[in-house]
Write a structure and sequence with these properties.
Layout lengths: L1 H54 L1 H12 L1 H4 L1 H19 L1 H7 L1 H6 L37 H6 L1 E5 L1 H8 L12 E2 L15 E4 L4 E4 H8 L3 E5 L10 H18 L4 E5 L16 H18 L2 E3 L2 H4 L20 H12 L5
Parallel strand pairs: 1-2, 1-5, 5-6, 6-7
Antiparallel strand pairs: 3-4
Length: 342
């Protein structure tokens, strides 16, 4: 019995040892692979998740970095850089432009009316002296003859004469009967032999000589030539003027004829290459020569219309540099009244 029990116990003990060793072997062989798979799957998930986490924040992270970093570092310097110009403008640069730019518009205000591409370089001014003519036909200064003296006159001429009607500076205002011009409002000296004028008493359009025959004016003031100096030489100019004056003398011998000077132009006139004060002052001498040859009178009105710089002052022109404004015509009438016929 004892022997059997011992053998049985020893056998059982051996079996137990075998089973334990087998379990140890199984545990060493089987458990590690399971643990490795879980670790690998966890690593795989981490690897797959990590890029996802890195990729998705990456685009968002970059703008955040750009917005956050410039704010404290770049905006503050930009404020400093903007503050510096403001200080310099307040201390010096704002004051200097005001001093340099304010006078310029005053001197060049009339010029914005002329396109830059069409401007021409103004020739040298003829000067005040060029308009100071003298001769036996000149009407010298007299006492003021008054408005009644002006009312006795008929004014024949071009657009520089039509302005007297436009600005209503004569008796009758815009309905005055003292202005003789074509219906177009202008007249070129070379057309005087065949051009027709609007005859104010009835509004008919008739030739100049017919109008003289009808009206037999007491005083006839002729202002022509500015449209002709651009293409007429001295001989051509004088021959046309002589033709007109001698015909009027023949038609109405009692009419007192006064040849008025051509008015100067302003330095801002657009077509100075064709009509300028050098040509005008030269042509005025031609008009004076005709007056002396025909024994009629000459009004040197241009002498009071030319400024110290040799040009028509801007305050006397209507904006185009050629025609007078109302103030200019009032100055002309004042000159006529104080340089009476004698």
């Amino acid at each position: 019995m004892n022997i059997r029990k011992k053998l049985l116990c020893s056998g059982l003990a051996g079996l137990l040892l075998l089973s334990l060793s087998a379990c140890d072997l199984v545990g060493q062989e089987e458990l590690p692979p399971v643990q490795n798979q879980a670790a690998q799957s966890a690593q795989n998930e981490a690897e797959t998740a990590a890029p996802a986490e890195e990729k998705t924040p990456a685009p968002d992270a970059q703008p955040e970095d750009e917005e956050e970093t410039p704010a404290p570092e770049q905006e503050e310097p930009s404020q400093e850089s903007e503050a510096e110009p403001e200080q310099t403008e307040e201390t010096g640069t704002e004051v200097e432009p005001e001093e340099t730019t304010q006078p310029e518009p005053e001197e060049t205000e009339p010029e914005p009316e002329i396109p830059e591409g069409e401007r021409v370089t103004a020739p040298p001014s003829a000067g005040v002296a060029a308009f100071e003519l003298s001769g036996p036909a000149m009407l010298e200064e007299t006492s003021d003859r008054g408005p009644d003296y002006i009312d006795k006159m008929i004014f024949l001429g071009d657009s520089t004469t039509y302005g007297m009607k436009y600005y209503a500076v004569l008796s009758g205002g815009k309905n005055t009967e003292q202005v003789w011009t074509p219906s177009t409002g202008t007249l070129t000296l070379s057309y005087q032999g065949f051009a027709s004028i609007v005859y104010p008493p009835d509004g008919s359009e008739i030739m100049i000589r017919e109008a003289v025959e009808r009206a037999k004016p007491e005083y006839l003031v002729i202002t022509l030539g500015v449209n002709g100096i651009s293409f007429m030489d001295e001989e051509y100019f004088k021959s046309e003027y002589l033709s007109l004056v001698t015909d009027i003398q023949s038609i109405s011998p009692d009419t007192k004829i006064i040849l008025q000077s051509i008015f100067p132009v302003a330095s801002t006139y657009e077509y100075l290459s064709s009509i300028n004060n050098e040509k005008i002052s030269t042509a005025n001498q031609w008009v004076l020569d005709v007056a002396e040859e025909c024994n009629v009178r000459y009004l040197n009105t241009a002498s009071v219309l030319v400024g110290a710089d040799g040009w028509l002052p801007q305050s006397l022109q209507n904006g185009d540099g050629l025609h007078l404004n109302e103030e200019g015509f009032k100055l002309v009438l004042a000159y006529i009244r104080t340089h009476g016929y004698q």
